[in-house]
Specification:
By secondary structure, the chain is α/β, with parallel strands linked by helices. It contains 16 helices and 11 strands. The strands form 2 sheets. A 7-stranded mixed beta sheet has the order 1-7-6-5-4-2-3, sandwiched between helices. The chain binds pyridoxal-5'-phosphate.
């Protein structure tokens, strides 16, 4: 027999040393986030090419590896966990969750089936129940933690298809607004629908779905013999943070017997605020809701959630069985998550949500979200004071969309100018903004969501906007 290689089982000292090195570098990194450039990817292609290497045959020491990682590789990036990240939809990066992942991976228990780790599965269920409480869902509601909003939307579309349509489902039509996140279209495609089955309904001037146009589209499709089965409302669009009239959508969905899904990947955690509860009124009437803890709860990337009002619907869409599997739970109170989601083996992602919530309680999360709303109101007021700045979408949550309209510049030239404006702002490396197209018009967006973003960096955004405009004039 070949000699046993025990190298992969680290000694106590090696484990300690490895953890300490990782902690040292990670903590130094986080301490310096506010001073790091907001974005720094100009040498990206060269770096990526330099990193290509064959399968290592021999190991090397940990220090030089971490040094390369933290000094060379990580800095070449958008500083997404930093306070200046105001682009797209910011994430967060609570350190607690990083530590939770360390523990979850170190103990490496199996949470796909209840029997294998009943207590840990319960912690994850608690987390999902807390989310249900946040959106106002009833007792029988439940859900799953996913890797993100896209996967949550995917499982929602599959559940709606299975519950509302026959097995031959190709006459099924989904209704979304023209502003819906593209992951819904992707979800429909993955769920087997041709692109033509997704109806993009026009929006009102505030970028919320036009209920009137939706009613017309439903009527036309029914007359054509098609089978409307699902409507998606946005609780905070990515473009402008617009929230659809969820109460009206719920009414219509009930009349028309449609599955009502709310994509709250960006906005749903604002249910922890007064403003959020007002603008998302009716969200609890949805059959399913997507939330992204890695956005509105400030977690590191890799955690989304799908909640359903009736857990049986998820089960019908996802359960499967095999002779080698243990017996699944019959007790209503206990859950085999592999029965509710596409995944079987997976990480214990419940712990990364559970730990920060247990350590702090919910209040600091509420306070942080309130602060983001207030900062957004502040910068919107300041933008309105600037000459030739047009607010394209008043913020309902924490996105403001605007453009610079100096006299004499129009059409494509105006779009190009606003694009250039973002480039100039980002080149200052204090904040990073992104833009989008709204009905042929290029607009600049500021989205404030990171728990690390406070007044200082929002002020930087304003200063850098003004100096960039001065430069381009
Ligand atoms: C971010 C986002 C998604 C996609 O979520 P991921 O976590 O990136 O997969 C879907 N819908 C909306 C409204 C979003 O903001």
């Amino acid at each position: 027999m070949k000699q046993t290689n025990l190298e992969l089982e680290l000694s106590e000292n090696d484990m300690r040393a490895l953890t300490e090195v990782a902690a040292k570098y990670a903590i130094e990194h986080i301490k310096s986030l506010a001073e790091q450039p907001s974005n720094n990817v100009t040498q990206g292609a060269q770096l990526a090419r330099n990193l290509i290497e064959p399968l290592p045959q021999r190991g090397i020491k940990v220090e030089p590896l971490f040094q390369q990682l933290f000094e060379q590789i990580i800095p070449c990036s958008y500083t997404t966990p930093g306070p200046g990240y105001l682009a797209y939809i910011p994430g967060g990066g609570l350190f607690h969750s990083a530590v939770a992942d360390l523990v979850a991976n170190a103990v490496n228990r199996y949470v796909g089936v209840w029997l294998a780790a009943p207590g840990l599965v319960q912690l994850e269920t608690n987390v999902i129940r807390w989310f249900c409480d946040i959106v106002g869902y009833p007792k029988q509601a439940l859900g799953i933690l996913t890797t993100g909003g896209s996967m949550a939307n995917f499982s929602a579309v599959v559940a709606a298809r299975v519950v509302r349509l026959p097995e031959a489902f190709l006459k099924g039509i989904l209704y979304v607004s023209s502003q819906v996140h593209h992951s819904i279209g992707k979800a429909a495609k993955l769920a087997g629908f041709p692109a033509a089955n997704v109806r993009a309904i026009p929006c009102n001037p505030d970028y919320s779905i036009s209920i009137e146009a939706l009613v017309q589209a439903l009527k036309a499709d029914r007359q054509a013999g098609l089978m409307p089965f699902m409507v998606v409302g946005s609780a905070g669009t990515t473009n402008t943070g617009a929230v659809d009239d969820l109460d009206s959508l719920a009414d219509l969905a009930r009349q028309e017997n449609l599955w009502f899904h709310v994509d709250g990947a960006y906005g749903a955690f604002f249910m922890l605020t007064e403003t959020g509860r007002r603008v998302m009124k009716g969200i609890q009437r949805a059959d399913s809701i997507t939330l992204d803890p890695h956005k509105g709860l400030f977690l590191p990337y890799g955690t989304g959630a799908l909640l359903v009002k009736d857990r049986q619907t998820l089960q019908r869409a996802h359960s499967g069985n095999a002779d080698y599997m243990p017996t699944m739970q019959k007790d209503e109170n206990f859950i085999d998550y592999c029965e509710l989601s596409p995944e079987l083996s997976r990480d214990f992602r419940g712990l990364r949500v559970w730990l920060p919530l247990k350590l702090h309680g919910i209040q600091p999360f509420c306070d942080n979200l309130e602060e983001k709303l207030e900062l957004t109101r502040w910068i919107t007021r300041e933008l309105k004071k600037l000459a030739h700045i047009e607010i394209v979408a008043e913020p309902q949550l924490s996105v403001v969309a605007f453009r610079w309209t100096p006299p004499g510049v129009e059409g494509a030239a105006l779009n190009a100018l606003n694009q250039k404006l973002i480039e100039r702002i980002n080149a200052r490396q204090r904040v990073i903004l992104s833009g989008t197209m709204l009905a042929g018009t290029y607009v600049v967006r500021i989205c404030i969501l990171s728990f690390r973003t406070h007044a200082q960096h929002v002020r930087y955004a304003l200063e850098d906007l003004q100096s960039s405009m001065a430069e381009l004039r």
